[in-house]
Write a structure and sequence with these properties.
The chain is mostly helical and about 350 residues long. It contains 13 helices and no strands.
Length: about 350
């Protein structure tokens, strides 16, 4: 194994940590948004609580999602794959930073999937290496089908869950006085903890899947996620969460719909159910999509005209262009730096 492969392996691991950091400020800001927007916790309190449970989710959340990420294509066990992964991670990181500057709660998961697909298509000369798989239901789904359906079905489920949960909650609170707001604020603490655990379990595993691919392509036969990979990924994400993106927090927490304590609690409860279920079944979902769609569902259930649909439309556009945008960036990077023409220079 040459020194070049060793250097690229180190670069991929470092890029994975940087991606986890960017995931932290992107999706972590969305996770904290509803509890901050409803004023149940201060930003510092929210960051501390989210960080603790994100770390726990990364350590204890299993590896089902990591296995799904590895299954989207045929990745040969040779050092060439390290180059693919370097391009994919760089494109995904660049997309996260771009959307942060624009204030869009874009999906880090979409960016990563797009980056991987772009690199695989460029390196393989087409789609022949992609494992399309099949979809019957989430648990039995395989390959890219499971990833795509999970990504695009989860926001719909989040919207419906937010809508129905809010309607049920309001029936239960029909005769409650305004003093119930105090308890709803307190109830957001365990709800947010569960959201953070589900996000930590789901999103860090995607990076762990990339780490496993890089280690195997280097020649190490690794079948389970090493503890040091879990700790590195979780630590990098927590650093990202600590540097909240205020524009994303504001957009999700107040700009879509003005959240009160009851809205914040329902949003977190609905999102937590989706995230935890997806993590246990291996479905790689986007926390930012699930949470924002839950906010939209809650707002629609409360008062449809109170939802700022122009803001929602901007975010939907960002979601749908992320996979092709990151894929194009990853493919362009591969062609520019690792094409046969470049190697002859």
């Amino acid at each position: 194994m040459g020194h070049d492969a060793t250097y690229i392996l180190i670069a991929v691991i470092l890029l994975s940590a940087v991606f986890s950091y960017s995931n932290g400020f992107q999706d972590g800001s969305t996770v904290s948004a509803s509890v901050i927007g409803s004023r149940a916790l201060t930003p510092k309190q929210a960051v501390l609580l989210v960080s603790i449970f994100e770390f726990a989710g990364a350590l204890l959340g299993g590896s089902a999602v990591a296995s799904t990420v590895k299954s989207i294509a045929h990745f040969p066990d040779n050092p060439d794959v390290l180059v693919w992964l370097a391009c994919a991670m760089t494109a995904a990181i660049s997309w996260n930073y771009l959307t942060k500057q624009l204030g869009f709660p874009s999906s880090s998961t979409h960016a990563l999937v797009g980056g991987l697909l772009g690199a695989v298509i460029a390196a393989g000369g087409g789609t022949k290496l992609i494992i399309w798989g099949e979809y019957r239901h989430l648990v039995d789904a395989t390959g890219l089908a499971k990833v795509i359906v999970s990504l695009f079905l989860s926001p719909v489920v989040g919207f419906i869950a937010g809508y129905l949960t809010f309607k049920l909650t309001m029936l239960l609170l029909l005769k409650a006085s305004t003093r119930v707001n105090k308890w709803l604020k307190l109830a957001q603490i365990p709800a947010l903890s569960l959201v953070a655990f589900g996000h930590g379990a789901n999103d860090t595993q995607k990076v762990m899947g990339v780490a496993l691919l890089s280690l195997n392509s280097f020649g190490m036969q690794v079948t389970t996620v090493p503890l040091w990979v879990r700790i590195l990924t979780a630590s990098a994400m927590i650093l990202g969460i600590a540097s909240l993106a205020p524009r994303i927090v504001r957009k999700v927490g107040t700009d879509i719909f003005r959240l009160r304590p009851v809205h914040g609690f329902v949003t977190q409860a609905a999102a937590a159910a989706v995230l935890v279920y997806a993590s246990t079944t291996g479905g790689p979902v986007s926390a930012s999509q699930v949470i924002t769609s839950s906010v939209m569902g809650v707002g629609t259930a409360e008062r449809k005209k109170g939802v700022h649909w122009l803001v929602a439309r901007e975010m939907l556009i960002a979601w749908f262009i992320t996979i092709p945008g990151a894929a194009l960036g990853s493919a362009a990077m591969y062609y520019a730096f690792f094409s046969p023409f470049t190697k002859m220079l």
